[in-house]
């Protein structure tokens, strides 16, 4: 017999269906609640609200579990490649060797961006933040591919829109970097794999051949895989809600990029390194900074700590911490902020404030140290997160369309003035 939940409002009782997911998560289906009772639910920050049913990513915050389409993140980070994971997320299953080769080939046919898009790069001030540029450039793709605007596009047209975005994003990201240096851009090379091609466009030089170290390529695959999806977070929900109005894919992802930018979300990776640098310049006293983070009168928070869903450990942080040691070791880099990060983590994990609130290092705590070791400047970190998250956003947008989800439109409880009459200006 299926479960129900009962709710009583103004002395009247209502039975609501309870739905159970494949991993036995339960949710009370309130979709008819307002129709039958007139009442709505209030849940600031959606801490208890499921916005959709989804078959893409499963995570259990209490146990520190993360699966993409059923596959544990640890196995994918160790054994897969970023493009394979992108395929898995978007299409639902791991591809055969032939299917993956075809996917790769299709993407390699669309890596160039329209030459007119270069004018955008010329227009941005050289010091403008890469995330602002990225959001603008991705949204601008809709101007170059107007067929993407049709909400009733065929499956083939939808597929091409997706392939174009996957293919062009690395070119856009690396060109943002090149332009910030005032260097000429490097064009895509189709014989290189997706990640290697991105690194070549980023760190290659027009004047000479640059060999990208395999350690760097492997680390980049791992980082991008770890960021590839994370179910209904702030940026992903943004992508789904913008897409639910039938806005095109490029506009929806551009909105997701803006949502990711904030330091409480993807922007934390930049904020962590800036924080660690500040602590270092301040003498490296982690106790002083922990005290600041605990002080309710001080707006400072320990960046890269805490997570809405993970309340035990973030499995991605565990993998990244190890990768961080490996990468720095292999590249022979000694970064003093890594020691500060480790001291801070150790102290926080023993501190009652952090223990009581179940605050652990999240994916962003160590990722910036790796990005820096690979040669990226701090303000590019969140853009790299966006590059990694792209397949997840696309998969979620595609699922939202396939499910024919209604337009996202929350309700509210009004707390403003009740009806009053207009007073002409000369009488106020
Ligand atoms: N430093 C100090 N205190 C913290 C921190 C932190 N990093 N994170 C949470 N807390 C405290 C809060 O002050 C609050 O304390 P209280 O109960 O005494 O009022 C309690 O822990 C719960 O925090 P909330 O803000 O209510 O938790 P929420 O789930 O809304 O926020 C968030 C989660 C935004 C990630 C938060 O932990 C945070 O701001 N962390 C720092 C920023 C960060 O690293 N963001 C990246 C997250 S991962 C990602 O998006 C990719």
TrEMBL record:
UniProt-listed GO biological process terms: tricarboxylic acid cycle
Pfam families: Citrate_synt (PF00285)
Pathway: Carbohydrate metabolism; tricarboxylic acid cycle; isocitrate from oxaloacetate: step 1/2
Alphabetically ordered keywords of this record: Transferase, Tricarboxylic acid cycle
Catalytic activity: oxaloacetate + acetyl-CoA + H2O = citrate + CoA + H(+)
Lineage, broadest ranks: Bacteria, Pseudomonadati, Bacteroidota, Sphingobacteriia, Sphingobacteriales
Record-annotated active site: 307, 364
Name the UniProt record assigns to this protein: Citrate synthase
SUPFAM superfamilies given in the database record: Citrate synthase (SSF48256)
